[in-house]
Amino acid sequence: FIRTPMRPSYWCMSAMFVVLFFIYLSAVKLVRGQQDIELTYHDHQAMTTLLTQWAQSNPDLAHLYSIGKSVQGRDLWVLLLTKNPHEEPLLKPNVKYVANMHGNEAVGRELMLQLIPYLLNNYRTDPYVRSLLDNTRIHIMPSMNPDGFENSVEGQCTGGRDLWVLLLTKNPHEEPLLKPNVKYVANMHGNEAVGRELMLQLIPYLLNNYRTDPYVRSLLDNTRIHIMPSMNPDGFENSVEGQCTGGQGRYNIRGFDLNRNFPDHFKANNKQQQPETEVVREWMDSVPFVLSANLHGGALVASYPYDNTPNSILSQFTLHSSESRTPDNDVFKHLASVYSLNHLTMHLGHPCPDGSNTGFVNGTTNGAQWYPLTGGMQDYNYIRASCLEITLELSCCKYPPRQDLGRYWRENKRSLLLYLGEVHRGVKGMITDVNGNAITTSTLKIKERDIAFKSSKRGEFWRILLPGVYTLVITADGYNSLEQQFTVEEGRITILNVQLTPIGLVVSNHSVSVNATHSTKLTNNRQTNAPNITTKSIGLTGDKHIYVTIPSVTDGQEKFANLLESKQWMYNNAVDNCVNALLICHQSIRGGGTLRPPSLLSSLNNNNNALLISSPAISSSSQPSKLQFSSSASPPAIGFSSLLRPNHTITLASDPLAPHQYSWPTWPSRRGQANAQAVTSDLTNTAPISNLFSSLSNRINSWTTNW
C-alpha cells in the first residue's frame, strides 16, 4: 500500500469548508438572536437592545412586554419565554424571576441576561430546556430598579466616584493598643470646597514636616489620623468655582443633603439613606474614632452639638432657637474654642459680608442655637459612635476663587494641627477580665454625665475630658460592675486599666498605670505645648507597675516552672510589704504570658507562675552589663532559699538561638530580716536587656534606653 500525498487543492477546499461551516452556524445564531453576549454590566439602553433582539428573533419562544415605567421614565421590561408565547393553554403554570430590586445589587440582573440566551440557544438540543419552555411560561424581569442601577457603578457609590480616606500615622499597617483614631471629613456639601482643598494641603504638610517638626512627629507617632477630603465628590463635580452662595452642587447626585441623612436622636428621620451616608456609617462602626471634625463653608464659626432639640410643645411657639446642650457641653465648648482661638480671624466673631449671620461670640456656637437641623452627622458621631465631633464653617464664600486658597490655608493651618492634638487629653485604658483577656462588650459612663459609650472590639476606651476628678462606671454582661475614681490633669492624659470580675467571683479590682511624659511644640510664632501623654498612677497603694511579656521557658527548665506554681507563695509575698515591681506570667511560664499587678494574685490558679523582683534600681550607665535589683522588704513566708538554690540559672528563651540567662544568689530565708539584700542578674555575653523587654509600652522606651 502506497500513501498518496493530498494535493494542495484539497487542503484549500477542506479549509474553506470548515470556515463556511462556522460562518453558517454564526449566521443561524444571529438570525435567531442567539449570539453570545459579553460578560459585563449592561446599562438600561444596552439591556433594552438585547431584550428587543431576542424577542424579535425568536417570536415562537419569546415575547417582550413592559409592566410600567420607573420614576425616571425607564421601562420595567419582562421577557416571557415559552413555546408559542402568545397562546395561554389551560393549566400551563407561570413562574417568574425578578432581579435588581436594589439598584446597586447587580449580579442578579446580569445572571438573567445570561439565562435568557442560554434557554433560547439550547431549546432544540437540551431535552430539559425544551421541556421547560414547552410546559412553563417563564417571565424574567432583569431589573426592577433600573434607575438605581444607573446611579450605581461597580465598586463605587452613587455617581461612581470613590470616597477616599488617607490614614496618616507611623507604621499605618500596625494598630497598637490605645493609639487613638481621629478624623477630618470635608466637602460633605459638594459646593463647599475650602475644606476639601485644606485637607489636600494638610496631608503633604504632615508628611513633609514629620522629620523636622517635633509636634508633627509627635502627632504621627501617637495618633492615627484619617482624612477624607471629599464625602460628596459628585456634588463637587456639579459645583461652580466662584459661586459664594446658592445650592448648586450642595446635594449628592440624587438630590439629597447628606448632612440631613443620618439617623437622629431627637426626631424621626424618614429620608432615604444615601450610599455616601451608609458607607460613612460603616466606616465609623469599623474604626473606634475618638475625635472628629466636619469641614463646611458659608460661615466662619466652630459649631458643636447638639444640632437638634427635643420635641416639645413650647419649641413650636418660640421665635428664636435655644441652646441644646450635651452631657459633655464643657468639652465641646473647649474643642470649638481650641479651633476658633487659634484661627487667625474666626475668634473675632465677625459676621459674613453678605449678612447671612450676625456673628458669633468668640467664633463658636451651639449648633441648635444657631439653627436646629435633623439628621446631622455630628450628633450621630456623638450619640451612636462615641466620637466627639464638631462642625467647622471655614469661609463665608462657599466656593471661592482658587487664588484665595493660600489665604485660607494660612488662616486654618494652626487650628487644624492643634485640634488633632486634643485627642490626647482626658482618660483612656483597657478593660480586661482577671486573666487579662479583653472585654469587648463593656458599656462605660462618666458619673453625672448622662451618656454612655462603648469599649472597642479590643477592650480599649477613650474619653476626652477637661481637668477634674471623675468616676468611671463600667458594666459588662456576666461581670460585676465597677466604679473607679480618677483624676485628669491639664496637659496630661490619664491611663486607667481596669479588670472586671465574673459575677460570683470575689477578686479585688486594681487599676494599673505607667508614668511617661511627652511634650512637643509647634514651630511658629505662637508656640504652645502639646498635651503631655502621661499615665496617672491610680491604685490601692499608689505603686507603679510595668506590663511586660515574659518569654517562654525551655523544656529543660520545667522543674523551675513547677516550683513557681505555689499560689500561696505568690499571694503572701505580694501583699507583704507592697512590692514595687512584679512580673507574673499569666498562662504558664513555659508558654509565655503577660505581667499582672499584685491584686490579681489571689485569683491565680495552679497553672500560673510568677517571678518576683523588688524595688528596681535602674543603672544610669548607657550600656550596663548588669541589671540590679534590691529589696528592703521582708522576704516571703516560705523563703526564697527554699525555692531557688544559690546561683541557680534560669533560661528564658524568647529566641532559641539567643537565650537570656539570669543567675540568682542566695535569698534570705528568715521572715522579717531587716537588712537589704542585693540581687544581681548577670547579662554578660547575652542579648541586650531591651530585647528581653521588647513588649514594654512605647511610653517607657526611655527607661529601657537607660537600662
From TrEMBL:
Gene3D superfamilies: Carboxypeptidase-like, regulatory domain, Zn peptidases. Its cofactor is Zn(2+). The keyword Thylakoid does not apply. CDD domains: M14_CP_N-E_like, Peptidase_M14NE-CP-C_like. InterPro entries: CarboxyPept-like_regulatory, CARBOXYPEPT_ZN_1, CARBOXYPEPT_ZN_2, Peptidase_M14, Peptidase_M14_domain. Pfam families: CarboxypepD_reg, Peptidase_M14. SMART domains: Zn_pept (SM00631). One of its GO terms (cellular component) is extracellular space. GO terms for biological process: peptide metabolic process; protein processing. GO terms for molecular function: metallocarboxypeptidase activity; zinc ion binding. The active site is at E393. Residues 1-33 form the signal peptide. Keywords: Carboxypeptidase, Glycoprotein, Hydrolase, Metal-binding, Protease, Signal, Zinc. Residues 40-423 form the Peptidase M14 domain. Belongs to the peptidase M14 family. This is Peptidase M14 domain-containing protein.
